[in-house]
Structure formats: structure tokens, C-alpha cells
Amino acid sequence: MKIEPSEIFKVLSVETRVKIIELLKGQGPLGAKDIAATIGITTAAVSQHLKILKQAGLVRSERKGYWIPYSIDEKAMENCRQILNEVCTCGCQGSGKYREVELERSDLESLKKYEKELKNELNIVRQRVRELKSTR
């Protein structure tokens, strides 16, 4: 069953679901209790979010006795990335880099806007580096 891109965006529009995906991505398969304890919500709430994520095909589960570990469906995540690349307007094609072709076709105003975005992003990175250095 193929889920429409708009439905995937609806599923991912809930911050708790994104947290669950990030957790599964970082720690691998986890049960509902472990997820609940980590993100600080009830197991019942986690189960409802997992049900929706599973229906959307973003996570999968396989019963192992009494334990039901949930994990990310890597193929579904790749499909999400492709969908985002299709609707992305920066021209990076998922590389995070502004394509040379787009640079050649862009007008001055677009390039200045892009330059400002890059400067803001660089400032955020520099701030985070300073924070990490100060904790050492």
C-alpha cells in the first residue's frame, strides 16, 4: 500500500512522532515502554503514535515473545527523503549543496537571500562549536 506524500507529511507533523523516529534512528529497535521512558510520555500514548507511524509505513515491528521492538523502515525513510527532494526549492537535490546549475540561473536577489540563509546557518554552527568548546 502506497501512502500519499501529503499523508506522510501529516503523520510527521506531530513532534512526538518525529522524536520517536529520531530515537529509533539513534538507538535502534525499542519497545513502547523504552520509548515512553526516554521521551517522557505514557506507554499508551507511545503505542498510539507507533500505530500511526506503522500505518504510514515509517516504522515496523516484529513480535519477539512478549517484547515488540519497533524500528525504522529504512526504505520508507528513503522514500520520504525523495519526496522532500522533489518539493525542495533550493535545488540541492538532497545533497545540501546549492547546485551549480541553479547558481548560473539565479538572479542577484535569490543569491543574496541564499547567502543570508547560509550565513545564518554558519552562525548557528559556530555558536554550537563555542558551546561545545566551553564545556570541555
Q: How would you describe this protein?
A:
This protein is mostly helical. It has two domains: 5-77, Winged helix-like DNA-binding domain superfamily/Winged helix DNA-binding domain (Arc Repressor Mutant, subunit A, Orthogonal Bundle); 93-134. It has helices at residues 5-12, 15-27, 32-39, 43-55, 74-87, 100-105, 108-134, and strands at 59-61, 70-72. Strands 1-2 form a two-stranded antiparallel ribbon.
What would you call the shape?
flat
Which value, in Å, is the CA radius of gyration? Answer: 19 Å
Element pattern in H and E: HHHHEEHHH
Number of domains: 2
Total helices: the number is 7
Q: What is the CATH third-level topology name of the largest domain?
A: Arc Repressor Mutant, subunit A
* Cα distance spanning the termini: 50 Å
What structural class is derived from the secondary structure elements? mainly alpha
Helical content class: 55-70%
Strands ordered across the widest β-sheet: 1-2
The assigned CATH architecture of the largest domain is Orthogonal Bundle
